[in-house]
């Protein structure tokens, strides 16, 4: 029994504009159903599409009393990102020195403390100083290399700046999260996630903390006990049934290790990556600045799986869906390997 008996089966808060499944009796917020399924929504448990408003049920009076008295309604999530952490605000406020930028004739700025060694005021001016001579020399073979090199060293600078102000685990390429929300049957033992059951239905494990801004990288390492392929990726929502695969929904994006990329379907996807079950390791690369999702396998870049404006908006939740008997370890808070970063930024 839930705390009030009137919780939504998706968001686990008191149901607002409550809809009751006529077949199994589960209750939902009308908004939660519409956000996930659109107008043709269905019960995540029995798949029935027959619902009735709670006002048309004998529970009407009890529901209205709970709704009027309960403060749970104040805990409903607000669909907007939190303010930028203080570290980002500090990074956004440049400290200028007395010396002029090497590109002063164009930018009219002094040297930025972050670019003291390069003697420029910004990444744009560093780009200008490096690239323009190559264009003048028609040295096109080195232009792309120089662009990648500048972007990579800028990401390192951002990490160093963050570390200097005491937040080394936040920023480009380095972040910490925990897989701590999971479907029935999944067990968590420190950094190991395990599923061992008779059923052949996918169960999702995810984080209750979403990602915002920046570039992120983490690894998923299948355990030897794994007997079936898994789905590895991200979700832009946390309102769904964890007893299903996150990529079954239109807000879930997964590298399915049968060699497919899945989104919004439990049966179809386009060819992507490699096939494997319980060997190697998968790297997940997420660039929320550009809206790009990509994967690697055993350190080899598999290519960009998705480019979408949706990936520029937080929160985004790391996810893995397991089937039958499976398990994995994960690593986060690690920098992006340089060879992957160079290919990812192209």
TrEMBL record:
<dbReference type="InterPro" id="IPR003877">
    <property type="entry name" value="SPRY_dom"/>
</dbReference>
<feature type="domain" description="B30.2/SPRY">
    <location>
        <begin position="145"/>
        <end position="339"/>
    </location>
</feature>
<dbReference type="InterPro" id="IPR001870">
    <property type="entry name" value="B30.2/SPRY"/>
</dbReference>
<dbReference type="Pfam" id="PF00622">
    <property type="entry name" value="SPRY"/>
</dbReference>
<dbReference type="InterPro" id="IPR050672">
    <property type="entry name" value="FBXO45-Fsn/SPSB_families"/>
</dbReference>
<protein>
    <recommendedName>
        <fullName>B30.2/SPRY domain-containing protein</fullName>
    </recommendedName>
</protein>
